[in-house]
């Protein structure tokens, strides 16, 4: 079976720390790389994980809060400095367009490659990207602004001895809502933000985020294989609190840290 893994580049919420960066993940599928969000520090994290800038095919942006996009300009610039020629696909909400337009007009200079922006505006799951290795479906999240989760399904059909496709879903940032478990139903690994432990569940409601028990309830209802959590509030320093609370509802929960690599298996 060809490799399918996800590397945690950033598991912090709003602000960076010495050992925890804002949201970004690198998906590695059959030798190709894809980014999920691109918070500040993503380039440094790509370096630290010894990943190749030019192997990234696309980035899937959840929403335009800074902790999910402040790394984008630097990354776009570096890929040009490395003389990338292959188009780079950016999938994200329509309100990302002016952010990209500003870059192109003022900062990109003589860029070596094309950026292909694919705006997402769906109200239920819709395929937004596919190549020979993955299909990606976007679905709306509940975060008070256009915000999307992504479900990544492995493409294996062209192979002589195909295996059962593996699936990964990325949900950051969101308050719970009834349709979400259905939309991530049965994935092998679900990443679901768990910004607040139960002690601050009122803050989760106030800021349209999830608490630990919200994330775990979604994983349980969706019948996923494993739950990864992240996007931790800086109010709580001991990450084991998040993990232990989730495990009371969904046993196979792991509190992700920067640098963790998870193999997606069935
Ligand atoms: Zn965030
Ligand atoms: Zn946000």
What attributes does this structure have?
266 residues, globular, seven-stranded mixed beta sheet, 14 strands, binds zinc ion, alpha/beta, Metallo-beta-lactamase, Chain A
Describe this structure in words.
There is one protein chain. This protein has 266 residues and is α/β, with parallel strands linked by helices. The protein has one domain (4-263): Metallo-beta-lactamase, Chain A, CATH 3.60.15. Helix content is 23%, strand content 29%. The protein has 8 helices and 14 strands. The protein has helices at residues 42-48, 66-69, 72-81, 97-106, 180-183, 201-206, 212-222, 240-247, and strands at 4-10, 24-29, 32-38, 56-60, 88-93, 115-120, 126-130, 134-140, 148-154, 167-171, 189-193, 226-230, 253-255, 261-263. The strands form 2 sheets. Strands 6-5-4-3-2-1-14 form a 7-stranded mixed sheet. The protein has a 7-stranded mixed sheet with strand order 7-8-9-10-11-12-13, with helices on one face. Helix 7 (212-222) crosses helix 8 (240-247). The longest helix has 11 residues, at 212-222. The protein is globular and about 50 Å long. The termini are close together. The structure holds zinc ion (ZN) (2 copies). The site of one zinc ion (ZN) has 7 residues, from helix 2. The site of one zinc ion has 4 residues, from loops.
Give a short summary of the structure.
The chain has helices at residues 42-48, 66-69, 72-81, 97-106, 180-183, 201-206, 212-222, 240-247, and strands at 4-10, 24-29, 32-38, 56-60, 88-93, 115-120, 126-130, 134-140, 148-154, 167-171, 189-193, 226-230, 253-255, 261-263.
